Amino acid sequence: MRETIWLIRKTFRSTFKNVKSWLLYLGLPVVAAALAMLLHGSSGESEFRVGIVNHDSGAAITQEAIDFVGQMDAVNVSMISDADIHEELDAGDLDMVIVFPAAFSEALRQGNPLPIDLHSVEGVGVTDYLKSSLNQFIDNRTAIAVASQGDAAVFDAMVENYVQQTYSFTAEQVEDQSIHHNRAKQTIGYLLILMLFASASLSGIILKEKENRTYFRMLTTPISGSTYVFSNTLLNLFIMILQVVFTLMILTLVFRVDPGISILGLLFILTLFAFVAIGFSLVIVAFAKTTMEATGLQALLFIPTSLLAGCLFPLELMPDFMERIAYFMPQYWVLDTIDRLQLGQSWSSLSLNLVILLAFALTLLVVAIYKFNRNNETGSFV
Questions:
Q1: How far apart are CA 44 and CA 114, in angstroms?
Q2: How far apart, in Å, are the Cα atoms of 277 and each of 22, 32, 57, 233?
Q3: Who contacts 90 (Cβ-Cβ below 8 Å, separation ≥6)?
Q4: How would you classify the pairing of strands 96-100 and 117-120?
Q5: How many degrees, rounded to 5, is the angle at CA 82 between CA 124 and CA 94?
Q6: What pLDDT is stored for residue 205 in this prediction?
Q7: How confident is the model at residue 355 (pLDDT cuts 50, 70, 90)?
């Protein structure tokens, strides 16, 4: 045990003897959190831009429908022409265009409303809500038209009576938590990548000290090879937990982001992933002969798996077959666990996710231990 503590202190002092090392391990997570804030924009309510093409100008009911759309929360209405529809949508200046046909108002008064033409940007979430609200308006006026039996005066009186009705209700504005959750999840995605490279860097000390013969000189002392690797693993785990705690503090205290789950819960999940990262890095060190080989393996394993797991951008943007490939990446199970907890699922329902992460960690560590035990070749460092 004394040898282990001595090795941890020695490696810690040699690795973190200057400010640059601290900036590398603790500064990059801050940059990652700041980048996540920028990518997910402001927490304020976004504006939904609607263009109106009115071929029934001057008609009261059509104007009433346009005013109804304009009075919706966070909806900005502008009048455009037919020629501008595709240009405005393609340029991103509008999210949706509503085209009211000629004689729309008169047909509605007769109880036979003409269909309106809708153009929208694919994937805009509020589009369906706006369509539904507009259809409810048209259905309401159609029902009044049927009840008035074509009498314009009766129709106008019934509409006026309907509009003048008052309702008592209490409204409470709540903050949209999805932006906070997305920011937290994106930050964690970046942090997973940094943890992988941080672990690989610390485990890579084993290769460096083999190359400069320090490792073999230490083996002539009472220090064994297993003690040396164990001390490196403990230091690795300590640094990554410190990295996780520091990142969560920056995320919650500086950027004021609510991750949607408890900090202790996040710490537990990320500590479990720390063992996965250590397993990854030890496997690389066990199989690589030189630091150059190790660096190549890191780039080959960490970047592609993180991309496929959704660490850099949402997994929903990928094709279905690539989403299924993500199931084989440990990073995916971390992000999926966080996503499900943010949705309110219990820990007991996520036991499979945790077991899979634990299985990844154990498998990688067993492979690394087996390879270290079998790897007695030192020719690459002679």
A1: 37
A2: 19, 18, 65, 11
A3: none
A4: antiparallel
A5: 25
A6: 85
A7: very high
- Residue 326 tokens read as 């993500």
**Of 142-151, 186-195, 263-272, which range is least confident?**
142-151
Q: Is 261 helix (H, G, I), strand (E, B) or coil?
A: coil
Q: CB–CB of 350/341 below 8 Å?
A: yes
Name the residue ranges covered by the structural domains of the chain: 2-41+179-381, 48-164
Alpha carbons 172 and 90: distance in angstroms, whole number: 36
CATH number of this structure's domain 48-164? 3.40.1710.10
C-alpha pair distances (Å), 82 with each of 74, 89, 130, 142: 24, 12, 21, 26
Q: Which of 34-48, 86-100, 157-171, 284-298 has the lowest mean pLDDT?
A: 34-48
Q: Which one-letter DSSP state was computed for residue 174?
A: -
Helix (H) or strand (E) holding 309: helix 291-309
- CA nearest neighbour of 93 among 40, 46, 42, 50: 50
**pLDDT tops 70 at residue 169:** no
DSSP summary character for residue 316: G
Strand order in the sheet with 117-120: 75-79, 48-54, 96-100, 117-120
| Residue 252 host element (H or E) | none
Question: Whole-model pTM?
Answer: 0.66
CA atoms within 13 A on the CB side of 308: 17
Distance CA 269, CA 189 (A): 13
CA–CA separation, 351 and 349 (whole Å) = 6
Are 230 and 6 spatial neighbours (Cβ–Cβ below 8 Å)? no
The angle at the Cα of 153, spanning 149 to 159, to the nearest 5 degrees, equals 85
Residue 79 gets which letter from DSSP? E
